[in-house]
Design goal:
246 residues, alpha+beta, 2 domains, 11 helices, isomerase, isomerase activity
Length: 246
């Protein structure tokens, strides 16, 4: 697996190329995130990216970068966007660029063993980098799909698929379900195979890694993909899998 910090920087560059080419009308167009314009999506990414490496990130508790009376992460993020929406597109883009392009270096600067508080959990800097890659990739779908802009899948999806599989126990626990061992055998964008988990697990998910990542990002339902779930808990795992915090 390539270094996630290098891949995070590459994901930012790919998204930046898209954003730099948007017209004013496209910035104000509806995105795939319900109730948000494209500008709102980029504002959200800027707001969350600004929290990386701040004292709040390295602190304790639920993450001081989420000041809100909202009871869910999504609601808190919506409150933050609503409080600052309306800025010109060029300033939103400049704000995101300043925060995003600093993130790989910031995360690389932490010494081994550092734990960072992010939302409601404690992560290593590299796992936090993986979550930032996953979020930017997911929101890139919200921007490009409605606008009909090409955003090619890359081998950076490996990090996102790993995250989705790695956090399945958490997804089961949030749903009040006992954990279940799941093996994933996925086809990468270049046609190679990526596997995660014990091959002897009673549950197995197979199919395109791109579909698996989109299901984990809630951009597709399992039924909208060609993924196959085999085993007593595999379909439930596919329903619950996610590569984001909520």
């Amino acid at each position: 697996m390539a270094d996630v910090l290098d891949d995070l920087a590459a994901e930012y560059r790919q998204l930046d190329a898209v954003l730099a080419a948007l017209s004013p009308e496209q910035w104000s167009a509806p995105s795939g995130a319900e109730g948000w314009t494209v500008s709102d999506v980029v504002l959200h990414l800027a707001q969350s990216e600004e929290a990386v490496g701040t004292p709040a990130t390295a602190g304790d508790g639920d993450g001081a970068f989420l000041p809100s009376t909202a009871t869910t992460v999504d609601a808190a993020m919506a409150d933050r966007v609503a409080a600052e929406r309306g800025a010109p597109a060029d300033s939103v883009l400049a704000r995101w660029r300043k925060a995003a392009f600093a993130t790989p270096g910031t995360l690389r600067s932490f010494p081994p063993g550092t734990r960072l508080t992010w939302v409601r959990t404690s992560l290593s800097p590299r796992t936090l980098a993986t979550t930032r890659l996953a979020e930017h990739w997911a929101h890139a779908q919200d921007i490009t799909v409605p606008l009909g802009i090409d955003y090619p899948d890359t081998d950076r999806l490996h990090h996102i698929a790993w995250l989705a599989h790695r956090t399945l126990p958490y997804a089961f626990s949030v749903a009040g379900r006992p954990d279940a061992a799941v093996h994933c055998d996925l086809t990468a964008p270049d046609g190679t195979r990526w596997t995660f988990g014990d091959p002897g697990a009673p549950n197995r998910i197979t199919g395109p890694a791109a579909d698996f990542c989109r299901v984990g990002a809630r951009r597709l339902t399992p039924e909208q993909t060609v993924l196959r779930a085999e085993g007593p808990d595999a379909a439930e795992a596919l329903r619950l899998v996610r590569n984001y915090a909520a």
